[in-house]
Amino acid sequence: MQRRLAALVVPVMLVITGCTTAPEPAPDAADSRPTRPSPFADCAGLTTPPPSADPARSTPAGPASPAGPASSAAPGGTPAGSDGAGSPAGSDNAGSPAGSDNAGSPAASGATGGTGEVVGQRLPELALTCFTGGANVTLADVRGPAVINVWASWCPPCREELPAFQRLSQRADGRFQVIGINSRDRRAGAQSIGEDFGVRFPMLFDQGDSVQNALRRNAIPMTLFVGADGRIRHLDVTGALDDARLAELVRDHLGVTVPA
Fold first, then answer.
1. Which residues, 6 or more positions from 149, have their beta carbon under 8 angstroms from its beta carbon?
2. d(C-alpha 57, C-alpha 227), whole Å
3. Residue 202: which of 225, 238, 220, 178 has the closest Cα?
4. DSSP code for 50
5. What distance lies between CA 64 and its chain's CA centroid?
6. Which of 99, 110, 146, 201 is positioned for an S-S bond with 226, CB 3.0–4.6 A?
7. Which residues partner with 146 through β-bridges?
8. 215-233 per-position pLDDT tens digit
9. What is the chain's Cα-based Rg?
10. Is the pLDDT of residue 29 over 90?
11. Could you give the CA distance from residue 71 to residue 165 in angstroms, rounded to a whole number?
12. Range with the lowest mean pLDDT among 45-54, 66-75, 121-130?
């Protein structure tokens, strides 16, 4: 009788042991890393005029000269008054994560060009990807009036001013576009900043520094004010811009009044 019981118990124990020690199937990679939707708006409307824009109010294009007292270029083409608001083009630290010891290091003193070389020119013929996917956007096809902010997640002044640009996009009320260009960065870094700071305006992605090279400005952050005719009215590299300064620049260079 005992032998019969042993013969029945042993197979049952083996079955139980095998079920509990067998490795579970590895989770599917897609399940373990769910896709995070982009916080930014799509870029489909960037090549059409803002719905409430008034071209007559856009400042006429003038000669390629510094844009009056609001001109922001420092001598030698380096960002003025910026506590490390830019990293050298092609630097080994380009695209370094936020918090890096080298984040936001000053632009190289040999950087060329000033705002006077840019003002009055059209946006460069550069095809950039949209952060949300879809067709590439040629920068020269972007319709103004527009405020274009070039930034990176590792740049402290960029992070400081992004919320002000988001508020500006909400106050634009269809009279001009607010557009971001994420430059010299990792997509994951830009994604996290967009999520954390609530940035919702359209975002283009420049993996290198093609925009800076085309404008001959080795600086970040960098903000362009573009008229309805697609010509650059002003280029600002003074560092982090706040609500009041943005409202002033939009009024002076795009002819549009927004609350500060």
1. 161, 162, 165, 178, 179, 180, 181, 221, 222, 223
2. 9
3. 178
4. -
5. 27
6. 146
7. 177, 226
8. 999 899 999 999 999 999 9
9. 26
10. no
11. 20
12. 66-75
| Two structure tokens written together for 120 | 């009055």
| Amino acid identity at 223 | T
Q: Which residue has 């005992």 as its token pair? A: 2
Phi then psi dihedrals of residue 57, to 5 deg = -90, -10
Max Cα–Cα distance, the chain, nearest Å: 108
pLDDT in tens, 158-169: 999 999 999 999
**Cβ distance 140 to 123 under 8 Å?**
yes
| In the block, residue with structure tokens 């870029």 | 43
The residue type found at 126 is: L
pTM exceeds 0.70, yes or no:
no
How far is CA 33 from each of CA 36, 43, 80, rounded to the nearest angstrom? 9, 26, 42
Question: What does the alpha-carbon distance between residue 150 and residue 209 come to, in Å, rounded to a whole number?
Answer: 10
Residue whose structure tokens are 């007559």: 56
* 126-145 as b/e: b if 16+ CB within 10 A: bebbbbbeeeebebeebbbb
Alpha helices in 96-209 (DSSP H): 156-171, 187-197
- What was the pLDDT predicted at 137? 96
Q: pLDDT confidence of 208, banded at 50, 70, 90?
A: confident
